[in-house]
Design brief:
single chain; 251 residues; alpha+beta; Immunoglobulin-like; six-stranded mixed sheet; four-stranded antiparallel sheet; 13 strands; 39% strand
């Protein structure tokens, strides 16, 4: 829902810009990411071209890679008599399971806070209203900050204000590291170009991330055909037990 609202707001912003507002052409080094059993992460290259004709050289480019939404339960812990005990629980989501925001300059130098909020750029702009179980705004913000900290600790949230390289004011490139623990699903790519604090270019696309191989087959069976998967597991265990017993009887 938040992404749809952002798209509507972005359309309005571009509608108020000159007719030739979109100055970006973009692409990715891969059109999909396949995760196998030996996947240890990789680096995704995002690149494109900038047309400086309508507005002159842009001030900077921001690239966002947003993972599939997820709903999580965050539990607050308190140490009592030397033991950590679960306290209040917060239901959060849907929030991105992965979020990388890279730019050619600090975000605050490219666009004012209100515009970044409308465009949903940066982890700080995640909607705290998506949290249930919190008493007020301050508590929701504290819960959201804890969620972001945990994601950053797992390398699933990242920001780098110097990761986008602009070459001769016409080309740009950026690299985003994809960790081994990245969630599977449909990722959204977003490219923003800014001039004088306003957006003058925008492109978006999709990047599917899937598990392939035997693990994928077992995972699909476990989720979509749980009864058959369970019966198969029991049958396999019985067969293996019978086989082991038969081997020992022969000895």
């Amino acid at each position: 829902m938040r992404h749809c609202i952002t798209a509507i707001g972005l359309a309005l912003l571009l509608a108020n810009a000159p007719a030739q507002a979109n100055v970006l052409v973009t692409d990715l080094s891969k059109d999909q990411i396949s995760i196998r059993g030996d996947f240890t992460g990789e680096t995704l290259l995002l690149f494109g071209a900038i047309d400086p004709t309508p507005h002159g050289p842009v001030d900077g480019v921001v690239v966002v890679l947003r993972g599939p939404g997820e709903t999580v339960t965050l539990r607050k812990k308190r140490k009592t008599l030397g033991i950590w005990i679960n306290q209040k629980a917060y239901r959060m989501g849907p929030l991105p399971g992965f979020l990388a925001t890279v730019s050619s300059a600090p975000l605050a130098a490219l666009a004012p806070l209100e515009e970044r909020r409308q465009l949903n750029i940066g982890a700080e702009q995640l909607d705290a209203a998506l949290i249930s179980g919190a008493a007020g705004r301050a508590e929701k913000q504290a819960a959201m900050q804890a969620f972001v900290r945990l994601k950053r600790a797992d390398a699933l949230f990242a920001e780098d204000p110097q990761a986008v390289e602009i070459i001769d004011e016409r080309l740009f490139r950026a690299e985003i590291k994809l960790p081994a623990g990245m969630p599977v699903g449909r990722y959204i790519t977003e490219f923003f170009a800014f001039k004088n604090g306003s957006i003058v270019g925008y492109r978006t696309g999709e990047l599917p991330v899937d598990i392939v191989g035997a693990g994928h087959i077992l995972g699909e069976a476990a989720h979509k055909q749980s009864l058959l998967y369970g019966l198969s597991g029991v049958a396999l265990a019985v067969f293996m037990g019978w086989g082991v017993a038969a081997i020992f009887r022969r000895r």
